[in-house]
């Protein structure tokens, strides 16, 4: 038996060797394939987790943008309301009405909380709700004006104020999206590079933790200085914007009398004329309203209190290197911000933000409160929160008094600038191209432009 077995192996050793080689190759190949499949599966799971973390962090970043806008907006709103004291003009008109009624001996129905304009001209116009009249910036009383002068000033001031607030809100929303998404990407890259330098395979943490040890003190300092540049819009940019809006409003709404009738189509046309004057053509640059000109960066940092007043020179008067010029990462962030603001997609997104806000004011608030139109459910219209969408369809012959429009615009100005929740900001955030634009910024991992490490 043993001899037969040896004979068999001797005669078939070649075939047996080949067979063993094949079996071994199959085994090794199977193990290799299995290991590669396992590796691919683990890599896909890691990528999926990383993408999910990145998605959640991006969504959290957009929520942070909303809170940031609501936190910063009152700074500009307070100054705009103070500079354009519509309630103070309303208060003066109330006083004139009350004095006239008292002099004639007629019973006064006027309260300082509402302004009724049924005067000797016989026209009855809806009341204007007003907040307590603010004091002027200087504290000095304004010179007395006639009723016609007050109504004309009320008309120009109320419309200018509301439209300026819409533009300011849209610009702040746009700038904040750019800033926080650039910083979100920058912090993400800092984490990636930090982990790569430590040669670790642990998944990248994307938690929003200000104490993240992966970000250096220098990174935090750059981030803080970069976010400070919203100061320009909140203190200087809106003033430039207001002057342009005011000139346009005077040209367009100047000939109208508060007692005149106005239709929704007329109101749309007048608003469109103002927007064309303010926004210009598709090549209009919003950069001067959002960021300071080259050379004024240190001015912004000083005015915002980020660097001390004496930072630019020593006690002997010798000029020193500016805090801005000595920070190349900050320069790159501002350069990329400028490019995004002036890019065609950026201008298009801004135009859509303006459209969304003006649509809320005209097609919803004015339609409902000035033209008394009832909202109708939109067929098949369901928003992202599962609520039925409604639209205001204004009849072609529907008209109202210009004073009614002023009353609504006056009240809406406070909601545009101080409303919580802010319907106008919510409408802007629903613009799909804004989300797409933010995603492009956040995911543009071009190390030649976006790397925070130098």
UniProtKB/TrEMBL annotation:
One MF term in the entry's GO annotations: protein-macromolecule adaptor activity
Origin: domain of life: Eukaryota
Positions of transmembrane segments: 16-34
UniProt KW Transport keyword: no
Keywords: Membrane, Transmembrane, Transmembrane helix
Single GO biological process annotation from the record: protein import into peroxisome membrane
Stretch list, region Disordered: 125-146
Keyword tRNA-binding: no
GO cellular component, one term: peroxisomal membrane
Entry protein name: Peroxin
Source organism: Arthrobotrys oligospora (strain ATCC 24927 / CBS 115.81 / DSM 1491)
